[in-house]
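Q: How would the structure tokens look for this protein?
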Amino acid sequence: MPKIIENIKEQIIEEAKRQLFENGYSKTTIRSVATACGIGVGTMYNYFSSKDMLISSFMLEDWKNCTVQMKKLDTSKPLIFLEGIHDYLKVFIDKYSFLFNDKDAASVYSSVFTERHVQLRGVLAAIIMPVCTCKDYDDPEFLSRHIAESLLFWTLEDVPFDKQAGIFKILLSL
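A: Here is the predicted structure in token form.
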């Protein structure tokens, strides 16, 4: 009879996080996580089809938590709202910057980067949309995508929000 381990999926995720943050992408393997959790490699595959799916699962959870916080921001002051979006993005980016800069990880994720980038921009654009109702511009959907892309790019480049704010004032006619 197989052994039953309580909360094994959560244990796997926590161990993978620990290993990833302590040892990096290359040294975190399905085998090392399985061994640390006291389970067989085959059991790991019952929960995650690959190391990358395992890592993606907790990154996605962190991203969802980040967007939940972004959606709670007050949109009545657009520049302060966008600064809040920037700040949440920065926390997420800083947390995973080691992974974004890892050549081995980049080679694995390069095949899905464009698709995921479009999805990420779309999520941000939807959150930003409420402040894109300027009188002088008739395409708020494009404006929200443009601002989302700008925030993503410049925050990834570690440009402080105060350097980004001027263009947002112009774009939003503030």
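Residues 78-100 form the longest helix (23 residues).

Residues 52-171 form one domain.

Upvote if useful.
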